[in-house]
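Handout, page 2. Input:
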Amino acid sequence: MITIGFTLIGRGTWSGGESYLRNMLGVIASELGGKVQAKLFLTPEQHAGVGASFDHLLAAPAIVDNRVTGAGLGKRGLTALAGGSDRAFADLVAKHAVDLVFEVAQWFGNRFPLPVISWIPDFQHRRLPHLFPRSAWWRRDLGFRLQTSGNRTIMLSSKDALADCETFYPASRCKTAVVRFAIDLDPGAVMARTEAARLAHDLPERFFFLPNQFWIHKNHGLVVEALRHIDRLGALGSLPPIILTGRTTDPRDPTLFKRLIGLAQTYRVESHFRHLGLIPYDDVVALIGATDCLINPSHFEGWSTTVEEAKSLGAPMLLSDIRLHREQAPDALFFPPDDAEALALRLLEIGQRPRFVRDSIAVLQGRQQVRRRDYAAALLALFEKTNTAAH
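Output:
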């Protein structure tokens, strides 16, 4: 059995990162029992935030210790850079008989005594550099340079990310592996909750759903402009409302959410741009199961969790025409990410047709089982290869 040490992804600000970790730990528990054991290491502050919410995914409760490495370079990362290893964290994971560690937005050092898998979700700062303050861009790029030039395996979530990694960081070549994740959920259990979730949030029978965090690259403004175009056509009253969820803060643009809501009010389309706030994850996936169509207008993605959830639940999708979306969901409907009129026409097209009839629960469950097993097999192959190469 291979024992792998994990740390928290997301730091409480990136819902997608925390969901990714929960999902991966769930797949390891359900599909790789007896082959892989996951151990989660948290700082006391992180444990106070997430509490015991991960414990049901682990064979033993999370390990809480001040020696756990936080995110980013920081003092611990600079120490690892100077000395070659985060010795305090190395001692901690060795004490708990860990075979290899999973590194995200961290730097354990190039002489860390255990093999390291570095997951790089995406290369947004390279594709959309104008969205990053100069200091943030350089911090992010330095971290990636350290990881890709060091003695570790680089795990990526898509061929799109692989191409970016090897283009922007040539030192990563021959060290990379693509592992496309799949959501660890039961379509039958989720679909059984859809009506209750819809009623709990006072939603109509037909609605569109956009459950992205309000980050600038997520491109919510295009949706507001599309609604304005539909209103000018006199067709807004016949369109299902667009329901939104997710965190409303973006450190790169702190006033973004307020401006978007203000813009919707100025255009008088706020009845169709309704934000529910940060709702429980179970409600989010249930509403994906209930929606007429999942919308993702993003300018950039690494591997979209919400798209993966929609695939698992058989939900129709309307996605921005970017390379990642084409790779992840080739059967979706697409629109140019900077063309509000094209999005408007797509929304009207979907809203005016009969409601989509989904496949049976048995069919959804069968497809989901295949995706989950493929993901588990890819993870196991990477873990075994990394562990074997170190010995």
